[in-house]
Each structure stands twice: as structure tokens, then as C-alpha cells.
Write a structure and sequence with these properties.
mainly alpha
């Protein structure tokens, strides 16, 4: 899914998807950022495509809260050292749901889709840069950090879907892309 093309969602689920992503999007615009909003849409679309979709039933406000919670949890939103930062109780209050309800829905989503902390699919770009496991690949039976490989091998690793981007193609300090800082 790219920014110019809307995510693929079954027709029957488009109203629920639109409402859930509108709630999550407004929240992210007010309290988080555009990248979190994009990740929430991506997660909501995956839930909508799941057969049968869990989004067909339940309070859409709670689904939106659960989705924001998952994105926050994957990216350590409750850690004061992270930006953006919100404690879990603040997140629930701002979303207008009970903390336990939000956390339970979030845990259900994480379990249902096999999402874990630092999951590369739902990590912010700055978190990808800090996650060494995203960059570990096997080359000639050795585990190596792809960021240290020659550019041609970085390109091949990206082409095969082994890394999130090609570090050699990103200028250090580039504010529009992930940083290419080496460990």
C-alpha cells in the first residue's frame, strides 16, 4: 500500500473500515503524527481483509483504540524517551475508552495477527533504524548486518524483501527518509 493508493478492503467492510480509520486518523493527527496514522490504516486494512473480519462486530471506537494501542505498543509509545510519547492511561483517556478494554482489544489484535514488539511491518522508520534484528541477514552461512554490506548486496537484500530499505540510498541526516546511521 502506498500513500497515493487506498488500501484494498472488501466492499462489505468499507463503512466499518472508514469509520475506524477516521477515528484513529483524527487521534493520530491531534496527538501523534502522520506516520502513526499511516500505520493504523495499514493495520485496520489487514484486519478488514482477514476472513472472517473481526471488524464486522463490536464498537468501532474500541477497534480504533485497539489499533492505535497496537501501533503504540509496537513502537514503545509509553516510553518517555520516545517521540511521540503517551502513557497507556493517557492514550485510553484521550481515546475515550477504558484502559483495560483498549489493552484487551490490542492484545487480541496482536495475537490474531502474530504481531510482536518491534514488528517491522508496523514499526516507525526511526524504530526500524534502532532494531538490529531487522537488518540481520544470512550471507554464505554467516549472519551479518545488511547495513555493512556493499551497496549491490543491500539492493539485492531489499529486492528479496529481507530489509525495509537500502541504507546506501539514504543520505545521512535526510529528514524525509530513514536515517542511515550505522551502529
Amino acid at each position: 500500500m502506498n500513500a497515493a493508493q487506498p488500501p484494498k478492503v472488501p466492499v462489505a467492510l468499507q463503512p466499518a473500515f472508514a469509520e475506524i480509520t477516521a477515528i484513529a486518523g483524527r487521534f493520530c493527527a491531534e496527538h501523534l503524527d502522520e506516520e502513526c496514522a499511516r500505520l493504523c490504516v495499514k493495520l485496520a486494512a489487514k484486519l478488514a481483509r482477514k476472513r472472517p473480519s473481526p471488524l464486522q462486530r463490536g464498537d468501532r471506537r474500541i477497534w480504533a483504540a485497539g489499533i492505535v494501542y497496537v501501533i503504540g505498543r509496537v513502537n514503545f509509545l509509553a516510553d518517555p524517551a520516545q517521540r511521540p510519547h503517551l502513557r497507556t492511561d493517557e492514550l485510553a483517556d484521550l481515546l475515550g475508552v477504558k484502559q483495560t478494554t483498549m489493552a484487551n482489544k490490542g492484545r487480541l489484535i496482536m495475537d490474531m495477527l502474530g504481531i510482536g514488539l518491534l514488528d517491522p511491518e508496523y514499526s516507525r522508520s526511526d524504530m526500524l533504524d534502532q532494531n538490529p534484528m531487522v537488518w540481520m541477514i544470512q550471507v554464505n552461512d554467516l549472519i551479518v548486518d545488511a547495513r555493512w554490506l556493499p551497496e549491490a548486496l543491500q539492493v539485492e537484500a531489499r529486492r528479496r524483501g529481507l530489509t525495509p530499505y537500502v541504507p546506501a540510498h539514504t543520505a545521512p541526516g535526510d529528514p524525509t527518509g530513514p536515517s542511515a546511521v550505522r551502529p
